[in-house]
Write a structure and sequence with these properties.
globular; single chain; 9 strands; EC 1.1.1.100; alpha/beta; Rossmann fold
């Protein structure tokens, strides 16, 4: 199921999407290009990012930049690359993330720190750096990717649930700071989305999650991407500080 984005929603606009070499991030980048936008794919895996950029149409519409979102200098140079190559920074999607699941009793301190660092500090770096550029232009949209795990907490995810809940609070605080500068900051909280990561789940865990979903199916990456496109575009021009659940009604 690929996105059938209206052509002109992001016409002439430039977006940076982190963690966009695959999965939800890649599908968001694809939806943005389909909507007339130009995209910089930031990812720690440059080879995968380059392949993704090529698949989206190459240099005229998509560029790949190696970026570890935990390092503010790398985030700076990724955003500078977007402005240099395409002339503006209109949309920032903070999507990069990892999981290191384990119960509290068995989770290492390193795995706690790493997940908090990539998700929470990485999203802070992206939000802060993008906002600094956007406020000069007096316009822009920042979309942060949280998770249902940040709303209800999941077993084995004290690190991930904490980070994703933190992204919600950060999104609201940043939205208040940036509203009078014309910059909107919103978040998406996906539920069970069919991807390489979730497909690897044990069948029992998958079945248990499915039983909690009123719509009785997993979501597709394109169904998250279309919501990201909505928040990135002028269709959501009077929305800031919101969190949109994309969960099929799970834990509503």
């Amino acid at each position: 199921m690929s996105s059938s984005a209206p052509r002109a929603l992001l016409d002439g606009r430039t977006a940076v999407v982190t963690g966009a070499a695959q999965g939800i991030g890649f599908e968001i980048a694809r939806a943005f290009v389909d909507a007339g936008g130009r995209v910089v794919i930031g990812d720690v895996n440059l080879d995968a990012a380059s392949a993704a950029a090529e698949e989206l149409g190459g240099a005229k519409v998509a560029r790949a930049v190696r970026c570890d979102v935990v390092d503010p200098a790398q985030v700076d140079s990724m955003l500078a690359d977007a402005v240099d190559a395409f002339g503006s920074l209109d949309v920032m999607v903070n999507n990069a993330g990892i999981t290191r699941d384990a119960t509290m009793r068995t989770m290492s301190e390193e795995d706690f720190d790493l997940v908090i660092s990539v998700h929470l500090k990485g999203t802070w770096n992206g939000t802060r750096k993008a906002a600094a550029i956007m406020r000069e232009a007096k316009r822009g949209a920042i979309v942060n990717i949280s998770s249902l795990s940040g709303k209800v907490g999941m077993v084995g995810q004290t690190n991930y649930s904490a980070a994703k809940a933190g992204i919600v609070g950060m999104t609201k605080a940043a939205a208040k700071e940036m509203a009078h500068h014309g910059v909107r900051v919103n978040a998406i909280a996906p539920g069970l989305i069919r991807s390489a990561m979730t497909e690897a789940m044990p069948q029992k865990a998958w079945d248990q999650k499915m039983a909690e979903i009123p719509m009785q199916r997993a979501g597709e990456v394109a169904e998250v991407a279309s919501v990201a496109l909505f928040l990135a575009s002028d269709m959501s021009s009077y929305m800031t500080g919101t969190v949109l659940d994309v969960t099929g009604g799970r834990f509503m």
